Structures are given as C-alpha cells and as structure tokens.
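User: quick one, sequence for these tokens?
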C-alpha cells in the first residue's frame, strides 16, 4: 500500500484515538453519562473498522489482490 493511500486511514485512526483518550481522561473518577458512553462505543466501533480496512488493504497489496469493497 502506498503511503498516499494509507495516510487518510492512519489520520482517521489518530483522530479517533485522540478523541477516545480525551473522552476517557476528562471523566476519570467521574464516569461517563449515557451520551458519552454511546460516543465511546461508536469511537471503538469506528476504530475497529479503520484497523480492519488498513489490514485488508495491506494484505491485498502483499498478496497482489484488489480490494473490491468500497470505502466507507
């Protein structure tokens, strides 16, 4: 995978991780309200999808196959 195609995914991962850390650190000892818990779950889900997409793209490049799924 070229750096150009990998960078947007890595940037999104970085942004999601930063938001997750901010959410967790600002509520240490206090706990999250229901909206914040829902946001944290959404962040975790988005991160899982980003990491999966990155692994799939890297595997596709390594084994010479094309990723047929659209981004999203």
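Assistant:
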């Amino acid at each position: 995978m070229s750096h150009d195609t990998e960078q947007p995914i890595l940037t999104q991962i970085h942004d999601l991780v930063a938001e997750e850390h901010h959410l967790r650190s600002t509520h240490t000892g206090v706990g999250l309200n229901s909206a914040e818990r829902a946001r944290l779950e959404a962040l975790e889900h988005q991160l899982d999808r980003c990491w999966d997409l990155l692994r799939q793209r890297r595997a596709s490049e390594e084994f010479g196959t094309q990723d047929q799924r659209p981004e999203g």
